[in-house]
Amino acid sequence: MALPSRNPNPTLRRVGWRSSKIYGSDLRSGAQSVIWGRASGASRDGAVMPPLPSGVCWRAVLARAHSARLSSGSRGASGDAGCAQDHPAVVGELRGELDRFGGVSVRLGALDRLDAAAFQRGLQAAIQQWRSEGRIAVWLHIPILQSRFIAPAASLGFCFHHAVSDSSTLTLWLGEGPSRLPGYATHQVGVAGAVFDENTRKILVVQDRNKLKNMWKFPGGLSEPGEDIGDTAVREVFEETGIKSEFRSLLSIRQQHTNPGAFGKSDMYIICRLQPCSFTINFCQHECLRCEWMDLNDLVKTENTTPITSRVARLLLYGYREGFDKIDLTMEELPAVYTGLFYKLYHRKLPDKYKTMTLMD
Ligand SMILES: NC(=O)C1=CN([C@@H]2O[C@H](COP(=O)(O)OP(=O)(O)OC[C@H]3O[C@@H](n4cnc5c(N)ncnc54)[C@H](O)[C@@H]3O)[C@@H](O)[C@H]2O)C=CC1
Ligand SMILES: [Mg+2]
User: Fold this and answer.
1) Nearest to residue 274, comparing CAs of 346, 332, 359, 194?
2) Dist. CA 144–CA 167, nearest whole Å
3) Closest residue (by CA) to atom 27 of ligand 1?
4) ipTM of the modeled complex
5) Near ion ligand 2, which residues have CB within 5 Å?
6) E-state strands within the chain
7) Which of 96, 182, 256, 330 to pair with 307, CA 20 to 30 A apart?
8) Triad 21, 23, 29: Cα angle to 5°
9) Which atom of ligand 1 is nearest to the CA of 217?
10) Cβ atoms within 10 A of the Cβ of 192, count?
11) Of the segments 41-55, 119-133, 243-257, which one has the largest average pLDDT value?
12) 213 alpha carbon to ligand 1 midpoint, in Å?
């Protein structure tokens, strides 16, 4: 991560599986579940509106209903001028979209003048309505500037599901038994490049500047959202050492849980085999203390390295002597079935005749 982060494919970062599959299907069918909380002057038990025909906008309906109430001089029960019930703005406007699992997804709209207590009453009424409709869960997306609604939602049983830079998402399970909602990201992915020059038998190694022990390791770092594993390896190697390289294969995957460097989450550390395209080292002074081309035998023999680096060095030596096809997991791009997207598949080389074969003896 020596240079400012770059995402080679910003579209992928935004269009996640969840948004395209869950919300997308509902948008296409036009299905929607619309609820409303109590508007100013409405009854205390939280008026619940019947579902509108598809395509009808509740915001407009609510606004019309509210202005009619205002023009007839309707006031809240308390009659206090400063009370939330007397606010002329629509109180508790919530709009939900059904997902294909039977949950409701609510994105908070313009609620600038709504106070937290009024929001809580509206949300409570909405939850009642969703329960009566048999919804299994509520996903509540709260923009960061409306974070004052998090506490009222939490008091009604909502928990954090995840947060991104400008919003948080809370969930409430309404179905039978314990929640079956999937969790959010569980792993961080780190990728290193074992840049090996077959002509000289040299391997590129670095010592991290910020580590307690200065041991030889392969240059690498954290993968960015939407970035292919091989691209991370090539990018990190270049940023940390100045060496240009090309992806050849995936060599190993390490999975480690409760990793302190991953904020206590699990860590996947993947090492790729890379082919060098340049040889002059110009290493990053912020991240690396030393960087050199080392004979592969020396890396195998040294004790001044990490166990995983030592193991992969031995794997490389085996591949160098007996053929890299013995150690390589190669990559192929294939089309995804439902989404129209493509993905990368990594496995040991499959002979061409097996790729097209329909029957096996
Ligand atoms: N077994 C091995 O040989 C090693 C494996 N790894 C794996 O490599 C991956 C991460 O590689 P890195 O080179 O660490 O990532 P990286 O190359 O993306 O660098 C991370 C950067 O973030 C900085 N940083 C980290 N925490 C920070 C904090 N709290 N405040 C300010 N700056 C902070 C670091 O100083 C460094 O500059 C992980 O998957 C890890 O498990 C890392 C080191 C050794
Ligand atoms: Mg690094």
Assistant:
1) 194
2) 5
3) 261
4) 0.94
5) 221
6) 33-34, 95-98, 103-107, 137-143, 159-164, 167-173, 187-197, 202-208, 216-217, 220-222, 245-256, 266-276, 288-295, 330-335, 342-347
7) 330
8) 95
9) 3
10) 26
11) 243-257
12) 14
Q: Per residue in 159-181, pLDDT tens?
A: 999 999 999 999 999 999 999 99
Mean pLDDT of the chain: 79
18 SS3 class: helix
Tokens of 17: 């599986």
For atom 28 of ligand 1, the residue with the nearest CA is 261
Q: Given the DSSP bridges, would you call strands 202-208 and 220-222 parallel, antiparallel or unpaired?
A: unpaired
What is the reported pTM? 0.75
Helix (H) or strand (E) holding 66: helix 58-71
**321 pairs with which residues across the strands?**
none
Nearest ligand 1 atom, CA 219: 13
pLDDT at 84: 39
Q: Which atom of ligand 1 is nearest to the CA of 190?
A: 39
Q: Compute the average pLDDT of residues 57-64.
A: 34
| Residue 126 in this model has a pLDDT that exceeds 60 | yes
180-149-37-89 Cα dihedral, nearest 10 degrees: -160
Which residues contact residue 81 at a Cβ distance below 8 angstroms, ignoring those fewer than 6 apart? Answer: none
How far, in Å, is the centroid of ligand 1 from the Cα of 151?
A: 34
- What's the gap in Å between 261 CA and the centre of ligand 1? 7
pLDDT at 359: 66
- More confident of the two residues 358 and 328: 328
Q: How far is the CA of 264 from the centre of ligand 1 (A)?
A: 14
DSSP result, 210-222: SSSS--EE--EEE
Best substitution site from 1, 218, 232, 263 to test ligand 1's pocket, by max atoms within 8 Å of Cβ? Answer: 1
Look up tokens 């307690």; give the residue.
Answer: 212
Written as six digits, the tokens of 350 are: 């499959």
**d(C-alpha 248, C-alpha 162), whole Å:** 35
